[in-house]
Design brief:
The protein is α/β, with parallel strands linked by helices and 299 residues long. The chain has two domains: 143 residues, NAD(P)-binding Rossmann-like Domain (Rossmann fold, 3-Layer(aba) Sandwich), CATH 3.40.50; 119 residues, Dihydrodipicolinate Reductase, domain 2 (2-Layer Sandwich). The chain has ten helices and twelve strands. Strands 3-2-1-4-5-6 form a six-stranded parallel β-sheet, sandwiched between helices. A six-stranded mixed β-sheet has the order 8-9-10-7-11-12. The longest helix is centred in the last third of the chain and has 18 residues.
C-alpha cells in the first residue's frame, strides 16, 4: 500500500507534538504539508518535518488525499466541511464542532460526500486500553465507575480559549464517556451534577441496564498528573484498568492511529471510531451540559 498524502491543519502544541510526528513517522502516511492560521507557525512546523507550508487552505487540499485536524472546534468544523466536499478523508479531533448544530452539519457534509473519517480519541488506540475493552466484552458488567481527574487545567499551555469557555465536558468528558460506552455498552440516558469548570459527575444508564458513574475534573493535583481509571463490577467480581500502569506506549499508539487511518482511506470505509461516533458522544454531552444550565455554543 502506497503512503497516503495527509495535510495537517494546525501548528500548535498538539499538532507539533502528536499529529505531525505521527503522520511523518511511518510508511503508511506522508505529511504532505501544513496550514495554520499563523503562517509563521506553519512554516516553522513544516520546516521541522521537511514538508511544505501552505498559506492557502485550498492549495493544501489540492496537495493531499486526507486532512488531519489539530485546531479548536470552531475552526475545525467549517474547514472539515470544505475538505469533505473536496473529497478528502478526515482525521478529526473532538469535539467535532463548537456546538451540536455544527457537529450535525459536519456529519451531514461527510455523509453527502461519502468520505471516510476517524476520530482522535487517543485512548482508544492505546494497546492496553484495547486489551481491557476486549476483556470487558467477555465480562458480565452490571456497573462501572470511570475517573478522568487531572491537573492539566492548571497548565497555561493546555488551558486555551475554547477549553476556558466550554469547561471539561467537551474535552475530558469525551474520553471518559467514550471509555464507559466501549466497556459497558451504548448509553440510553445521561445525568449530570457539579461544576463543568471544576469537578463534576455523570451517571449513565446503558443498553442492557448497566449503570455507570463518571467523575471528571481538570483541576485536581494527583500522582503522575492524572487519574484515568475504569472499574467494572459484576457477579464474577471486578475488572479494572488504571492508565498509569500502561507505561510509555506512545509509539504503538501513534502506529495504530496512523496505520488504521491509512487503511480507512484505502478501503473507503470509516474507522469504527468515526465522526458518527463523535456526534453520538457530543449529543449526550450536550444533554448533560443542559442539565447543568450550560449552553455549549462555543462562543
Amino acid at each position: 500500500m502506497s503512503a497516503v498524502n495527509v495535510g495537517l491543519v494546525g501548528a500548535g502544541p498538539w499538532a507539533s507534538g502528536f499529529h505531525a510526528p505521527m503522520l511523518a513517522g511511518g510508511p503508511e502516511t506522508r505529511l504532505a504539508g501544513v496550514w495554520a492560521r499563523r503562517p509563521e507557525a506553519a512554516r516553522a512546523l513544516a520546516g521541522r518535518f521537511a514538508t511544505r507550508a501552505f498559506e492557502d487552505y485550498g492549495a493544501l487540499l489540492d496537495a493531499c488525499e486526507a486532512v488531519s485536524f489539530a485546531v479548536p472546534p470552531e475552526v475545525q468544523a467549517p474547514m472539515a466541511i470544505q475538505a469533505a466536499r473536496a473529497g478528502r478523508a478526515l482525521l478529526l479531533e473532538k469535539p467535532l464542532a463548537a456546538d451540536l448544530a455544527g457537529a450535525m452539519a459536519l456529519v451531514d457534509a461527510i455523509d453527502t460526500a461519502g468520505v471516510p473519517t476517524q476520530l482522535m480519541l487517543t485512548r482508544r488506540f492505546r494497546p492496553g486500553v484495547r486489551d481491557f475493552v476486549e476483556r470487558a466484552r467477555a465480562f458480565d458488567v452490571r456497573g462501572a465507575y470511570v475517573r478522568h481527574i487531572t491537573d492539566e487545567l492548571f497548565s497555561p499551555s493546555y488551558l486555551n480559549a475554547w477549553r476556558e469557555r466550554q469547561g471539561i465536558l467537551l474535552d475530558f468528558g469525551f474520553h471518559a464517556l467514550d471509555l464507559a460506552d466501549a466497556a459497558a455498552g451504548g448509553v440510553k440516558e445521561i445525568g449530570a451534577v457539579g461544576d463543568p469548570h471544576g469537578f463534576m459527575a455523570l451517571t449513565c444508564l446503558h443498553e442492557g441496564g448497566v449503570v455507570s458513574q463518571i467523575s471528571i475534573s481538570g483541576r485536581v493535583v494527583v500522582p503522575a498528573g492524572h487519574l484515568k481509571t475504569i472499574d467494572l463490577y459484576g457477579p464474577a467480581g471486578t475488572l479494572a484498568l488504571d492508565c498509569r500502569d500502561l507505561g510509555d506506549d506512545s509509539a504503538a499508539t501513534r502506529f495504530n492511529v496512523r496505520s488504521e487511518f491509512a487503511s480507512a482511506i484505502r478501503s473507503g470505509r470509516s474507522h469504527p471510531v468515526d465522526a458518527h461516533h463523535g456526534l453520538y458522544l457530543q449529543r449526550l454531552l450536550t444533554e448533560a451540559a443542559a442539565q447543568l444550565g450550560q449552553t455549549l455554543d462555543g462562543m
